[in-house]
From TrEMBL:
Annotated catalytic residues: K97
Position of the signal peptide: none
Family label: Belongs to the OMP decarboxylase family. Type 2 subfamily.
Annotated catalysed reactions: orotidine 5'-phosphate + H(+) = UMP + CO2
PANTHER family documented for this protein: OROTIDINE 5'-PHOSPHATE DECARBOXYLASE (PTHR43375:SF1)
Domain of life: Bacteria
The name this protein goes by in its record: Orotidine 5'-phosphate decarboxylase
Entry EC no(s): 4.1.1.23
Keywords assigned: Decarboxylase, Lyase, Pyrimidine biosynthesis
Length: 268
């Protein structure tokens, strides 16, 4: 088994900084890069991003939907991209946002097994079916040194209509569940997703014991100042940016420079 994901993430953040870059090959972005909206365009896009960033950023986060929409050839592109990114030293967080009853969740969690054709380091998951539904993924992650990021307080404007219901809120119950999974581990492998777009932090992350993935930067309006305001220090925050870095392509040097600008702004 590889080292626990929490430990590998902590080491990667120490060596490379906390920035995660999302690989989101939207059709308009492919067009802007002068690429066709096809598996070939997808492959050239993915190769350029991996080439530019896998040797320097801590985490790359491909969004599965953009590959699935090209069918089996799209998934083949993703397999190559993920293998290339991991070989270059980046951790790969597959943004799949999966969640289902336990027996099906077990199959989704197979992405964390080293012998999966699309083996990754960590997975985003949805808790909508209840905390117990995610237990097979927790078990697989523990067995194979993988990580999970559970949607808790997402970056989209109306997320609170579901996530803030109840006392404690649904989001807080998600955070409390994940805290329980991390209990007793030195660098927890289980994280939550909390958007950088929140006007205030309305969940208590105290003692979470694992990382926070913070999307919503750049294109969705969140800034490094928002991250500092929301999270302060003491929480391992992994800020993730997609469009605001990817728009700099297709030039590899320009992509690197865009990621470096974000890394520098986050370090201030
Ligand atoms: O889990 C995620 O990554 C995620 C959670 C969330 O609350 N909000 C959110 O935008 N995301 C993802 O983060 C990426 C955001 O992309 P940009 O807005 O272009 O930086 C997309 O792939 C979203 O699917």
């Amino acid at each position: 088994m590889s080292q626990p994901f929490g430990q590998r993430l902590a080491e990667a953040v120490t060596a490379r900084g906390p920035l995660c870059v999302g690989i989101d090959p939207h059709a308009p972005l492919l067009e802007k890069w002068g690429l066709p909206d096809s598996p070939d365009g997808l492959a050239r896009f993915t190769d350029a991003v991996v080439d530019a960033l896998a040797g320097s950023v801590a985490v790359l986060k491909p969004q599965l939907a953009f590959y699935e929409r090209h069918g089996s050839r799209g998934l083949a592109v993703l397999e190559d991209g993920v293998a290339g990114a991991r070989a270059a030293g980046a951790l790969v967080l597959l943004d799949a946002k999966r969640g289902d009853i336990g027996s099906t969740m077990d199959a989704y969690a197979d992405y964390l097994r080293p012998d999966h054709p699309l083996a990754v380091d960590a997975l985003t998951v949805s808790p909508y079916l209840g905390p117990g539904s995610l237990q097979p993924a927790v078990d697989t992650a523990r067995a194979h040194g993988g990580g999970l990021f559970v949607l808790a307080r997402t970056s989209n404007p109306d997320a609170g209509t579901l996530q803030l219901v109840g006392e404690p809120s649904v989001a807080q119950r998600v955070v409390d569940t994940v805290r329980g999974w991390n209990a007793g581990t030195p660098a927890g492998s289980f994280g939550v997703v909390v958007g950088a777009t929140l006007s205030e932090l309305d969940v208590d992350l105290t003692g979470l014991g694992g990382p926070v993935l913070a999307p919503g930067l750049g294109a969705q309006g969140g800034s490094p100042e928002d991250l500092r305001r929301l999270f302060g220090t003491g929480t391992l925050v992994v800020p993730t940016v997609s469009r605001d870095v990817l728009a700099a392509g297709p030039d590899v040097a320009a992509l690197r420079a865009a990621a470096q600008r974000w890394a520098a702004a986050l370090a201030r």
